[in-house]
Amino acid sequence: MNVKVSKALAPLKGTIRAESDKSISQRLIIFSLLTEDKCQLKNLSKALDPLSALEAVKQLGLSSTYKNDTLVTQGVGLMKLKEANQPVNCGNSGTLMRLLLGLLAGSNAFTVLTGDESLNSRPMLRVVEPLKEMGATIYGRENDSKAPLAVKGHNLKALNYSLKVPSAQVKSALILAALQATGISKIEEKLPSRDHTERILTAMGAKIEKNGLWLEIQPAAKLSGLDFAVSADFSAAAFFLGAGLLVDDSEILINDVNLNPTRTGLLKVIERMGVRTEKEEEENIEPVGNLLIKHQNLKGTVVLEEELPTLIDEVPLLAVLAAKADGETIIKGVSELRVKESDRLQGIVDLCRLLGREAEIQGDDLIIFGQAGYFEGGVYDPKKDHRLAMAAAVAALNSKEGIEILDADCCQISQPSFFPQLKELGATFETA
After folding, report:
1. CATH number, domain at 215?
2. What is the pLDDT of residues 168-200, one digit of tens each?
3. Is 195 a catalytic residue?
4. Read out DSSP for 204-264?
């Protein structure tokens, strides 16, 4: 399905709740397998990735039923996974595949993990190598670096490991393996990354201690169940935040947003670009609050590499905002974007040029030469990358001729309600 998004002819106004957090939803579904207690999981994301997670863990022994908007699960417990009788399909979810690698490495099961064409082309060696150090047996394509991946669970030994790349997915995989290992494992991050795994597993009884960039994980005999309501995904909310900033006189209230500081680096960056946001916040396992955003003028800034883990998913949107900002914006150390659902880095450059703004890649840095005023438009191919498609849709609201987005239904991967919610705020578009 192609979607043509038109220039906004009136301010965007309204109150919305963005899609529930995809990253947290996937983790809750996976972790519910690891307890013999029941879990009650409310407001789970209905995006494709969490649905893939649910189908995958059912193959490994999870039982579940839906009651209203609550998923009630019955897991099997640590190291008691059922052996799947066919390959486990992770769809398009790198989070799912990498976390299952860590989980399965310490199980008694033999499992084959596969995914769609995009996922099977993404790098997995960053997870496979440290798991092998712990004693895991893992085989795959291209010297065990690409899926499909075959995992034969073993008794694992503790790990003392420094992550080679800032990655919450790799960190989470190693934590899951460490819970099943003999001895205390220590993991060092290069930079702080999202910490949903640590928060949720700690709430389930895991002993995970943080000291600076080091995590210390004790093996766990059992984990307890959880009653948890998922808040809205900050990455999803960010696109509506961006729409409010781009369209004159707009005012948008986004309710029930996850405000975990390892996810909200974008707020700090746009503050340097001249933006004021208003937020109310409270904390349980995860900090949650409401965000009020109004249209404001923007200026260029510099985003440092150490900030990237807190805003990596929002870089396409940030690039669109930078394209309308007054002056140059430099985003440092973005090479990781080359290995997302697409070559997201090149996709950002292509989008900026479609908008009539120059952008270039210098080494590992992205430079965007912004200017105030309306964008150009045209036809954009996001290469089935949901975040590029949504960034293009937001940009279209400030474009002279609108933007036709090819295969825009890829937004279903993370935000099935993205276009309906844009319409609710006053945007106009047509499908083809």
Report:
1. 3.65.10.10
2. 999 999 999 999 999 999 999 998 999 999 999
3. no
4. TT--EEEETTEEEE---S-----EEE--B-HHHHHHHHHHHHHSTT-EEEEEEEE--TTT-
